[in-house]
Amino acid sequence: MEKRIRVKRKNYIDKWRFAFQIGAFLIILINPFLNYYFHIKVVQGWYQSIAFGHLWFVSPLEGLEALLITKIIYMPWIIGMLLPMTVAFFLGRVFCSWICPINFFYEIMDRIHKKISKRSYYKRKPLFELPRWMLWVALVGELALAMMVGKPIFVFLSPPGLVGREILMMVFFHTLALEGIIVIIVLTTYFISRRFFCQYFCPLGGILAFLGAKRRLIIVQDMDTCHECGFCDRACPWGIYPSRGEAESIYCTNCGACVAACPFGARNFVWVSYSPASEKLKKIAG
Question: How many CB atoms lie within 10 A of CB 277?
């Protein structure tokens, strides 16, 4: 009975998340072909800065970099940042878990591993773990470096952005850029920990986590229903421990893996008017 419940919940959460990732990736993959071969330009750009017709979306990190470097308040940038910032404020770091192409590739690798090992859950422990405050060091360091050199570093070297840029280079110029090696290096960190780069070194993830500190959508644990089986901890690809209440922390991406993994329905998404993640920000970040 427990196995049937677990499979049903896993299908509901994990399949929806994977479908979102596929859809987001297909937009970036197909769009250059539509532009180049059919001159259809409804969608322009990629993950960092993308426009659907006249509706323009800008990554909060890219927009902040531009503001710090140019010291100019450019309203199209500000307006373009509003929707991603609003999504992060209410839903948290969902871009990282539901849209980002790097996490999409990681999830494919997870699925391959599960097929090979024939296990329902990923059980390999990371080779080593770093302090979680490394995420904040990466964010502050990236912004400081961008201001020092006067260039938006992450715009040029962002792994999610490089995925879109490599696809564009392949379609328009029939070649691949040297910067694509960064994506390969980031993906190889999977063998250290399932989301090694995302956990500790992605400044975009850092700023989205900060914006989502008071997120309204959180994953809560029903202690009366929980059997302390540990499935949630093993299922989480982000290195946090939902069994310890860390699904409510600033580091949770709301991927829902722990919700899907729980065979007893002890974890669920809950919409709240106030998130405990904001209270824990100073303790966890420090």
Answer: 22
**Distance (Å, rounded) from C-alpha 80 to C-alpha 57?**
4
Phi and psi angles of residue 195, each rounded to the nearest 5 degrees, phi first = -135, 50
**Which of 101, 98, 94, 95 is CA-nearest to residue 163?**
101
Q: What is the pLDDT of residue 10?
A: 54
Instruction: Round to whole Å and give the CA distance between 137 and 135.
Output: 5
- Work out how many domains the chain is built from and give that number: 1
pLDDT-derived band at 276 (thresholds 50, 70, 90) equals low
- The predicted-structure confidence for 211-268, as pLDDT tens digits, reads as follows 999 999 999 988 888 888 888 998 999 989 999 989 999 999 999 999 998 888 888 9
pLDDT at 11 over 80: no
Q: Which parts of the chain fold into alpha helices (H)?
A: 2-38, 60-70, 75-91, 94-98, 101-117, 134-149, 153-157, 159-173, 180-188, 196-200, 203-211, 231-235, 257-261, 276-285
Q: Which two tokens stand for residue 176?
A: 């691949």
Mean pLDDT along residues 19-23: 96
Instruction: Kindly state whether residue 231 falls inside one of the protein's structural domains.
Output: no
- Burial per residue of 252-270, b for 16 or more beta-carbon CB atoms within 10 angstroms, e otherwise: bbbbbbbbbbbbbebbeee
Alpha carbon separation from 149 to 145, 157, 211, 271 (Å, rounded): 6, 14, 26, 42
DSSP summary character for residue 209: H
Range from 74-83, 123-132, 178-187 carrying the lowest mean pLDDT: 123-132
Is residue 175 in a domain? Answer: yes
Residue 192 lies in a domain: yes
Can you give the residue range of the structural domain that contains 170?
36-211
CA distance 46 to 168: 9
